[in-house]
Write a structure and sequence with these properties.
Layout (H helix, E strand, L loop, with lengths): L30 E4 L7 E4 L27 H9 L38 H7 L11 E6 L5 E2 L7 E4 L3 H11 L4 E6 L19 H12 L4 E4 L23 H16 L1
Parallel strand pairs: 3-5, 3-6, 6-7
Antiparallel strand pairs: 1-2, 4-5
């Protein structure tokens, strides 16, 4: 909002210099009046008069927040326009390099991506990846039994009964936002062979479990471990020839059939 400012002299008095809009307290003796559209007059300091009793009570600051002066917007703007800019915190000094750091010219880089990682606020503003429970994949170990049995080599982990404990665990995971799982089966030793044929049995433990989970939780994302080691009597991920060599092409053939069986 525009306003017309006037006084008996041709310009604002030089005593306006030094006015701090945040801390200045106008008094009766040092005021000269200026017209304002919002009130009859506003006041600026005069250089010649002593400072008698303040017109407004001076309130001492009790915190780091500057005390309000009670000046109007027009008074603050008039002070700034006259060159009396309120004091602000100083510019922090440039951090010093360790002693012995060589003085070299800046590299001719058009971009320095590190600047977007300088502070927590910048990292939050520019991060491209935000991790949430929906990003997690929960590994679950299953077996043919009905009870959950502890895994000796993995304290705190259990092999879950595929029709009971597994369903409960998936339900709890979904309650906290984890909607992706990966299955690791324990296959009965009697079904293990050197060629891992049980891996592509469509009625095997993993295909049965997938069908059940999809029936109970249609929106669940299920990952599987396409590998022969749970089904191999040798305990290896591939078919092992009698001289100990892994038969890669033949293993891939078995893995393709396993992937098809788990996809239905």
């Amino acid at each position: 909002m525009a306003s017309t400012i006037f006084s008996t002299s041709s310009s604002l008095p030089t005593a306006v210099k030094g006015l701090d809009c945040n801390t200045y307290k106008p008094t009766l003796g040092n005021l000269r009046f200026i017209a304002s559209p919002n009130r009859k007059s506003i006041a600026v300091p005069s250089s010649s008069s002593p400072a008698p009793k303040p017109l407004f009570p001076v309130v001492k600051a009790t915190s780091d927040v500057p005390v309000k002066t009670g000046l109007s917007d027009a008074e603050c703007e008039a002070a700034v326009a006259a060159g009396n800019v309120p004091e602000a915190p100083p510019v922090p000094p440039t951090p010093l390099a360790p002693a012995g750091t060589p003085v070299v010219p800046s590299l001719p880089l058009s971009r320095r991506p590190r600047r977007t990682r300088r502070s927590p606020a910048l990292r939050a503003a520019f991060q491209e990846t935000s991790i949430s429970p929906a990003n997690f994949v929960y590994p679950l170990f299953i077996h043919e039994g009905e009870e959950d049995t502890p895994i000796g080599a993995m304290p705190g982990c259990y092999r879950l009964g595929w029709r009971h404990g597994l369903l409960e665990e998936v339900a709890k995971a979904r309650d906290v936002g984890v909607n992706s799982i990966v299955l690791f089966p324990k296959v009965p030793d009697a079904l293990k062979t050197p060629t891992g044929d049980e891996a592509y049995n469509e009625y095997g433990l993993v295909p049965r479990t997938i069908r059940m989970l999809k029936d109970k939780f249609p929106g669940l994302a299920i990952y599987t471990d396409v590998a022969l080691d749970p089904y191999s009597s040798d305990g290896h991920d591939g078919i092992v020839r009698e001289d100990g060599v892994i038969m890669n092409d033949e293993t891939v053939h078995q893995l393709c059939k396993q992937a098809v069986a788990q996809g239905f």
